[in-house]
Amino acid sequence: MGTSGKIIKCKAAIAWEAGKSLSIEEVEVAPPKSHEVRVKIIATGICGTDDHVLTGSFPKVDYPVIPGHEGAGIVESIGEGVTCVKPGDKVIPLCLPQCGECSSCLKWNTNCCLKTHLCNPQNLMPDKTSRFTCKGKQIHHFLWISTFSEYTVMPDSTVVRIDDAAPLDKVCLFGCGFSTGYGAAINTAQVTPGSTCAVFGLGGVGLSVVMGCQAAGASRIIGIDINKEKFGKAKELGATECLDPRDYEKPIQEVLIEMTGHGVDYAFEVVGCLDTLTAALASCHMGCGVCVMVGVPPTDSRLSFDPLLLFTGRTLKGSFIGGWKMKDSIPQLVSSYMEEELKTDVLITHTLSFSEISEGFNLLRSGKSVRIVLLF
Ligand code: PAD
Ligand code: ZN
Ligand code: ZN
């Protein structure tokens, strides 16, 4: 390929500092070093987590940064020692690495690879340098994958080959949103047939939780959101009832306990707020309810609740990218999509060009979209 080994100039969206909107700039993307892969991103979704990066409420981010972590693309070139992909392969960048060597990767019951951003920030490549420069300045990576750049470099532990026939403008959702929500129900909660579930927050991730609860055979799925415009799609995907907490004088947990008689079997927090997390926990069955935290809480926040909520047997657990070991699982999920077992296209409400990225964030914040896919 003509570009292999050379610097590539392309468009990327940079967050110069927290609290400022993104600006589209020309960046220089250095070639991949040993055990790194340079990918041409074809499509990228916008996730609520990217919005947390813009507002400064995502932990351990260094600015200026190129966000984006829900992409799909084609390998442009590879560095020395890379064996898992080759130029021309269709791939999904992984926002949670699977190095295959650390103590977590060697355990069957966690996907939390010790190379994750939450252990060691992924703001620079593993050799502590950046592959991005703009106007002579070093720009940081985000989760090692920065999909808001037409070309991006990532370690080989954070990229996986997928089916050559997969439509990249659709399967990019498997890089985060869909896999996160669906896996929270299937893997983390292990929702059982006939159970009752409550899903707080019906964005792209929350609706994917609804899909997971339905696939697991839950008989009652109660969607909760302060934006009633989300209810139609939630019902289409399997929610049996939808509630707006603002329609009730009582706290929503009391409403849910009255509706179910004893509290729900599984509650999912998919907003990223401490108040909804406590409400989700309190709405679970006191003896055996399981509350799964999916939303990313604000940086440096602290949770405070009556410990008696746990004393009687409720469980509170977190779910990181749906509990999937991403290298092993994402290609399989994409195959299920190709076999029409997973109908994720319904989550995509808007497809825009990359230059319309700010409009995409406005749509996300206005609540008028579920998933927005940007095309380069
Ligand atoms: P989104 O902004 O599309 O959806 C959030 C939804 O919550 C919207 O529909 C809001 O109307 C709704 N909402 C807001 N406030 C309330 C409230 N008080 N009560 C009920 N509903 C409310 O975001 P998303 O679906 O892309 O992401 C949701 C969260 O999941 C967000 O915090 C994101 O950072 C997190 C996430 N976690 C992981 C993980 O690995 N755990 C991965 C990806 C995203
Ligand atoms: Zn995400
Ligand atoms: Zn690992």
Automatic annotation (TrEMBL):
GO terms for cellular component: cytosol. It comes from Eublepharis macularius. Keywords: Acetylation, Metal-binding, NAD, Oxidoreductase, Zinc. The keyword Oxidoreductase applies. GO terms for biological process: retinoic acid metabolic process; retinol metabolic process. This is Alcohol dehydrogenase 1-like. SMART domains: PKS_ER. One of its GO terms (molecular function) is zinc ion binding. Its cofactor is Zn(2+). The gene is LOC129336716. Belongs to the zinc-containing alcohol dehydrogenase family. Residues 19-374 form the Enoyl reductase (ER) domain. SUPFAM superfamilies: GroES-like (SSF50129), NAD(P)-binding Rossmann-fold domains (SSF51735).
